[in-house]
Amino acid sequence: MTKEQIVKFIEKQKTAFISSVDENGFPVTRAMLAPRKIDGNDLYFSTNTSSKKIQHFLRNPNACVYFYQRGKIKYQGVMIKGTMQVCTDQPTKDEIWRFGDRFIYKKGVTDPDYCVLKFTCKSAEYYCDLKIEDFDF
Amino acid sequence: MTKEQIVKFIEKQKTAFISSVDENGFPVTRAMLAPRKIDGNDLYFSTNTSSKKIQHFLRNPNACVYFYQRGKIKYQGVMIKGTMQVCTDQPTKDEIWRFGDRFIYKKGVTDPDYCVLKFTCKSAEYYCDLKIEDFDF
Fold it and tell me: B45: Cβ–Cβ under 8 A, 6 or more apart, which residues?
């Protein structure tokens, strides 16, 4: 797998599994919608400012983003380690906003409960069945 | 959701997402097969002794196990925080072993590369669309 093939794999997935480290040092994982934008080594997600993960990432930016596909014959997974930045600046919020978001964020694109998570990839592992390949970004 | 309903939800899933914290403080997530045994607050998984997660858990037992189901209408997720114990003792290995494992572990149930992960649940969160419920175990 090349880096380009990993990006293509990510682009096909509907779900991302995002992990943070909480205030007591426990890993915490949750499913999120796939990234809205992939730009070089950066993945952008939209989320609620009031969610617990925002508190985790403000305290500790260490993060993991995992993508997974289980087919009938083989399973593939991509695990990426990196850092997560919480973006509340209006230009980033404007760029990542989509029309349907107004049904979640009643105040629209300036709603303080809408923010953007920017994940910067540092290294990755690609799993295919029992094989593992390592990558640096 | 009661604790019993959470267990029923877990029993229906084919995949578990297991997270550890690595030697540099980064969360690391990977898909695994569903637990082989659920006993009270403990979930048992089979795995390779040589895998990186074993090193993570021996150094830091803090763990998260996440289960996820995305239906056509709603998504549900269960995130459980707890501690992971690496079991290499023969009675536990004997108990969790299944016949098909001999195709992976050539030396059979005493193969040193076969071991058991025992996860003890401490607290959980159940997600259904945008709602969250907390549980203590």
Answer: B16, B18, B32, B33, B35, B36, B116, B117, B119
Rounded to 5°, angle at Cα B39 from B28 and B123: 50
pLDDT in tens, B9-51: 999 999 999 999 999 999 999 999 999 999 999 999 999 999 9
B28 in A contact zone (CB under 8 Å): yes
Instruction: Return the residue in B46, B56, B64, B131 with the most chain A beta carbons within 10 A, the one to mutate for interface testing.
Output: B64
Contacting residues for B96 by C-beta, under 8 A, at least 6 apart:
B36, B37, B44, B46, B116
Is the ipTM higher than 0.90? The answer is yes
Total number of domains constituting chain B:
1
Residues listed for chain A? 137
- At residue B18, the pLDDT reads 98
| This prediction's pTM | 0.93
Percent of chain A with pLDDT over 70: 99
CATH code of residue A32:
2.30.110.10
Q: CB of A81 within 8 Å of any CB in chain B?
A: yes
Which DSSP string corresponds to B1-60? Answer: --HHHHHHHHHH-SEEEEEEE-TTS-EEEEEEEPPSEEETTEEEEEEETTSHHHHHHHH-
The pLDDT > 90 percentage for chain B reads: 82
Q: Domain limits at B112? A: 3-136
